[in-house]
Amino acid sequence: SRRPLKGTIGKAKLVSEKRKESVQSRAFIPKEWIPISIKTVTIQVSDNRSHLNEFKNIFSESSTSNKKDSRMNVLITGGAGYIGSHICSILPDKFKNTTIIDNLSNSKIKTIHNLKKISKNPINFISGDVRDTNLVYKIIKENKTNHVIHLAGLKSVSNSTESPIEYYDNNVSGTISLLQAMNLANVKSLV
Predict the structure, then answer these.
(1) What gap in Å lies between CA 134 and CA 142, rounded to an integer?
(2) What is the DSSP letter of 51?
(3) What is the predicted pLDDT for the residue at 121?
(4) Is residue 78 left, alpha or beta, with left meaning phi > 0 and alpha meaning psi from -120 to 50?
């Protein structure tokens, strides 16, 4: 007989964009994921990028042992997308390296080339899928990642009703895969 996983039930409040109704959703969170500190950030994307400057202050001090260069390394999943590319363009100087993983399903490689031209920080791009736990773990370890910004996901409401399994696989399985890789690599900071 199989024992159920021990964990906690988390509540998420979702707001319907059309009706502005609040709905309660329940998600099972395995006990081993609880140590990961998740910071909630709301970013409103518009032509005015001043609100993105607030993003610069969300990271706490790193616990890196290198005294000469205490800047941190960040992994951005879905970093070639609209929001991800804007975040990459304004990352603060406290980041030493930015690594982007994106499968380019909703974005173009040209975005990465443009980011490399305007970014203050070096940008590494890996074409890959966050559902590949081994790849994500390898990227985290090789780049000595301290923080992860998770933006990889499918977002079209109409397409999600036509292909719900694809959206579930990409969004839910992708997040679980990322969390497993972070747990293996002992990375605890996720936005």
Answers:
(1) 12
(2) G
(3) 77
(4) left
d(CA 3, CA 159): 36
What is the secondary structure of 102-169 as a DSSP string? E--SSS-HHHHHHHHHH-SS-EEEEE--TT-HHHHHHHHHHTT--EEEE------HHHHHH-HHHHHI
Given phi > 0 = left and psi -120 to 50 = alpha, else beta, which region is 123?
Answer: beta
Output the pLDDT for position 37. 47
* pLDDT confidence of residue 55: 53
User: Contact 108/37 with Cβ under 8 angstroms?
Assistant: no
Mean pLDDT by 10 residues, the chain (191 residues): 42 36 40 47 48 50 47 92 89 83 94 89 92 97 95 91 92 95 94 91
Phi-psi region of 5 (alpha: psi -120 to 50; beta: other; left: phi over 0): beta
Tell me the one-letter amino acid at 73.
Answer: N
In this structure, are residues 184 and 142 in contact, taking their beta carbons and an 8 Å threshold?
Answer: no
- Please state the separation of Cα 57 from the chain's center in Å: 17
DSSP classification of residue 93:
T
How far, in Å, CA of 99 to CA of 76, rounded? Answer: 6
d(CA 112, CA 85): 8
Predicted model pTM: 0.67
Type of residue numbered 190: L
Reading the block at residue 33, the tokens are 């994921």
